[in-house]
Amino acid sequence: MAVSAYELITKETVGTAVASVTFSSIPQMYIDLVLVCAARTSRAATSDNLIVRFNSDSTAIYSSTDVFVDTGISTARSANDTSCFWSYIPSASQNGNTFGSATMNIMNYSNTTTYPTTLCKSANTNAQIEYTTNVYRSLAAISTLTMLSGTGSNIAVGSTFTLYGIKAA
Amino acid sequence: MVLRYDTRSRVSTYTQSWVSGAEPDFGVFESIATTVITADTASVTFSSIPQTYKHLQLRMFAKTDRTDADDVTLMQFNGDTAANYSWHWLRGNGTAPAGSAAGASQSYIYLNYACSGNSSASNVFGACVLDILDYANTNKYKTTRSLHGYDLNGSGWIYLASGNWRSTSAITSIVLDQQYGTNWKQYSHFALYGIKG
Fold it and tell me: What tens digit of pLDDT does each residue of A44-93 get?
């Protein structure tokens, strides 16, 4: 009999607004990680950026390429960033019951000979959908994930973050 | 090349119900096979794919020996080399206007820039998560859906793509090749999963 290759590692629901959510001591026996959220922030606007840092690393070794759709289709890229871009999510000026939805696949996160690559997809009710790839130019295995607002706002109450591991055969 | 096809039963050490003696939960997302490239390898094949799942997911992390920043992953099913494939892309590279492209009556599903080439940094690989829904259904043509791309810190591509194989045959094998390069490079890996339904 086969066993499930998609395992829940940990999850968190924000009960009090916080600056960041951290998952640490991530087991190293999976091939990929999948990070999922339903989240919003306290930024005084309709949307905010949700970013991720690996291993608490805030050096300029992240980069991204994305395509996003709101009133039209656009593309953007960034280099030498201090974090991994994940998603646009609703913030304080949006309806209080509105949370953005995003998924990040972190490929080969524990391999120390290749740079991890992410594949992200997200949607929020500010009529935006986005697809992004990031590279984290470090050979250190990822053992910690820190999720936070890119504008310094708090992660709002009710936001949820869930981390899964995917096993290889 | 190392090809591991695991049909053995395994006990999960992460299932509390098994430890307690209750019926274990084997979940709905199962690993079928994983190929890890240990030396230059021309192509990767998943064969004798079990027909007991509802959908398949292919997760790839790959680099080829093409002397360029990127390459194209080519996919065929059941050894079908005829012009029975087509695809659409939504894509962006950060500067060129995001747009779509399409191919019809092709002999492969083209996963454009789903892998890096050998001119990119040695540690940079392309990534792809591809779903094949209803792969065993003999009343439907097969549809694929993928998110793939790579980033090189100032350049790169991201794709949302669909593919179609105009055959009602159940998928029993998948071949993955490169359009421009000759080999998959060391540390590339290809993992096939079955999703129950």
Answer: 999 999 999 999 999 999 999 999 888 888 899 999 999 999 999 999 99
- Read off the pTM: 0.91
| pLDDT tier, A3 (very low <50, low <70, confident <90, very high otherwise) | low
- Smallest Cα distance from A64 to chain B, Å: 6
Tell me the chain B residues in contact with residue A35 when contact means C-beta distances shorter than 8 Å: none
Its ipTM equals 0.95
For residues A74 and A111, is the Cβ–Cβ distance under 8 A?
A: no
Distance of CA B127 to the CA centre of its chain: 9
Search chain B and give the residue with CA nearest A135.
Answer: B151
Q: Which amino acid is at A75?
A: T
- Whether A6 shows a pLDDT value over 50: the answer reads yes
> How many Å apart are CA B159 and CA B178, to the nearest integer?
17
Site from B18, B128, B153, B160 to mutate, A interface, most A CB atoms within 10 angstroms: B153
Residues A95, A101, A102, A103: what is their CA dihedral angle, to the nearest 10 degrees? 160
Amino acid at B124: V
Rounded CA gap, B127 and B113, in Å? 9
Q: Is B6 on the interface with A (CB under 8 A)?
A: yes
CB-based contact A35:A106 (threshold 8 Å): yes
